[in-house]
Amino acid sequence: MAASKSNLRSSCSFPNLLLSCLNFTLFILSVTSLVPTVLLRTPPTSMGMAFLMISGISILSSFVGFYSQLTHLCFITHVSLLLASLVAQLLGTLALFTKERSTMSLIKSPRDPREAKLLVRLECGVLMAMLMMQVLVLVMSCVVQSCWVREYEGLEAEREAMTKKRSRRIAKVQEESMENAAKIAEVKAKELDEKMKNKYGQWVKTSEFEG
Description:
By secondary structure, this protein is an all-alpha fold.
């Protein structure tokens, strides 16, 4: 049982480490995605705010992912944020990739058109990288969660086995105690019987002698 438990933990350690690296990379990409939007226009327009919200959701999902890894909690919240971030990143990437000119007109950047176009394409590239990283984080989160579930089930099985073993030991001790008590009672009964026989025999002999 201990060997299987150690094997399970070692099998979960690599996915857990990989998930941490992916979460950290996603966090870096999410922070990086803020830069082109801020450089395009400050304060941003409604379109710029939409891209900032996409980055913000991704950053939040990274933080929740780190917290989920540390506490083994908030898995559903983390997955929900990942899915919401995936949808937002997909829409943002499609908007920048397929409708670049209309997106640039909605951003209303005061910069040089070439520079603005470069920043928009940079934002599109970062969003695509975030999208792929988000998919990897989602997959690895599910893998790590399944490892945690198996580990928890293993601990519960081990605890149940220890409880049964302890119950058997207690039952065995109680049985031995009852057997010992029965033997002691039997020995005492025999001793009492012998004493009564000896005493009765002496009384009979004395009565015969007096008669």
